[in-house]
Amino acid sequence: MTSELVNRAILISQCEADDIMGVVVRREAGFLVISVHVPDARVDPQARAAADQEADVLGLRVVRHLADRWGLENPDGLRMWAALPAGST
User: Fold this and answer.
1) Residue-wise pLDDT tens for the chain (89 aa)?
2) pTM of the entire predicted model
């Protein structure tokens, strides 16, 4: 799950090798939340639109299947996240 979120964040954000990316895993209200943040993301609207529509990409299908909820936001760079029930393995 984490590697897919990181991979998608890299593709969508167009980040470079020297850009900083943060990965945070926390327990929140009965869920394990995995969050990937690229603060200096240069989000290409076409890449973002493609990512929003890529329901057939295997990695995103796995995320959708395992996560209770997930999302992609870009209020301050790019943030991808997924919330799994805390009892999941």
Assistant:
1) 898 899 888 888 888 888 889 999 999 989 999 999 998 777 766 766 666 666 457 777 888 888 999 988 887 888 999 999 987 55
2) 0.79
Residues facing 22 on adjacent strands: 37
What single letter denotes the amino acid at residue 59? G
Write the secondary structure of the chain as one string of H (helix), E (strand) and C (coil): CHHHHHHHHHHHHCCCCCCCCEEEEEEECCEEEEEEEECCCCCCHHHHHHHHHCCCCHHHHHHHHHCCEEEEECCCCEEEEEEEECCCC
CA distance 45 to 54: 14
